[in-house]
């Protein structure tokens, strides 16, 4: 059981909740703050004070006063009118993260909701009832209004949910699980939809997959090093210490660990004096990606515990402030940065693939073909990798540099953070497939060299990988191999580290 406080949620806990389906509960201390905040809202309504979103309309309608008898209808209308999501739904894992993050944000006690709202969100997490939330339609400021409105619909017994592998009407599932729908009261609709949880949830899932992929990229690159008889000297610790980037030094250390004992890699001057950059500069390039991922992780962990709705209630209601914490700019920039960094893993991987298949760049059979000419071997796998790399270049164009005014120019600068997070995730998916192609090609290359000469860890990867993709003895439909390898990398989440192998 993980206790949510609104302050302490981290990636270790997120992995347990998302992947292990660990149960969650709200801390009693946080619930005290929630109840105090709620009393402040009720006092505002009772006294007829003019406070944005509680006794006024929204956006451009912020100057329209709402009678206290209409506060419930105001909140219901808000959720219904803002449920304008478009397109395919977010992955179910992202929906689960979104519900969790919204509950955690409300537990900070600045939002003025009743405890029952948070309790229902926690029920959805614990009973694995995940709202169907269309992935398009958010500008990433004023919160992720459209996506979070679809989340809020489920609390009302409306909309659809993912439940036990099916997509079903929300009310049917809530009834079955005895989770009773709620009626929204003052501020509660606004508190549910005014936040950055869509972009943050997508970013959290994307980051966790990118982190695993970055580890796997080093291991796969190590197998490529063996297949191409790469030069070990480029990973010498003194070179990387001389530059001083910690992440670069870490990559080089892991590469040395993966390749320890290998009789396929060489010393400088034995086969060639130096390698091409895609081999020699792996620590520098992958290390820079790790620098970016560390930055992204820091921003996401802050946002996972942030109050991002509006207005926020302080000092037991003595201070109620309309601000802009819903603006997704910090996450928008982080997601754009992550897309660029992960795309570079694909860029350099594709160049290694080219070196594995191009007979002008190695002494292996052309395109790793068992019968060059009669059989094409890995020729078109490189084409496929090049296509994905090129697509990544368009996806890595920053979404955050764009802004379109909305709500009659009241909301005149927006972040596009949710677009950025979705694009970053697509880059992760594409990059995994590029690395899958490199893995297939590198395994074929080391077969020609002699797998008995491999390092212990790379040989372990080879043996496990051969259970997924068999050796290329004859041309076949390689698309199936690429998807099988990609699925293995994603689902097994296998990370090989020097001296040990762990599952994350």
Automatic annotation (TrEMBL):
Contains an active site 4-methylidene-imidazol-5-one (MIO), which is formed autocatalytically by cyclization and dehydration of residues Ala-Ser-Gly. Its EC number is 4.3.1.3. The keyword Lyase applies. There is a cross-link at residues 141-143 (5-imidazolinone (Ala-Gly)). It is found in: Cytoplasm. Keywords: Cytoplasm, Histidine metabolism, Lyase. InterPro entries: Aromatic_Lyase (IPR001106), Fumarase/histidase_N (IPR024083), HutH (IPR005921), L-Aspartase-like (IPR008948), Phe/His_NH3-lyase_AS (IPR022313). This is Histidine ammonia-lyase. It comes from Salipaludibacillus aurantiacus.
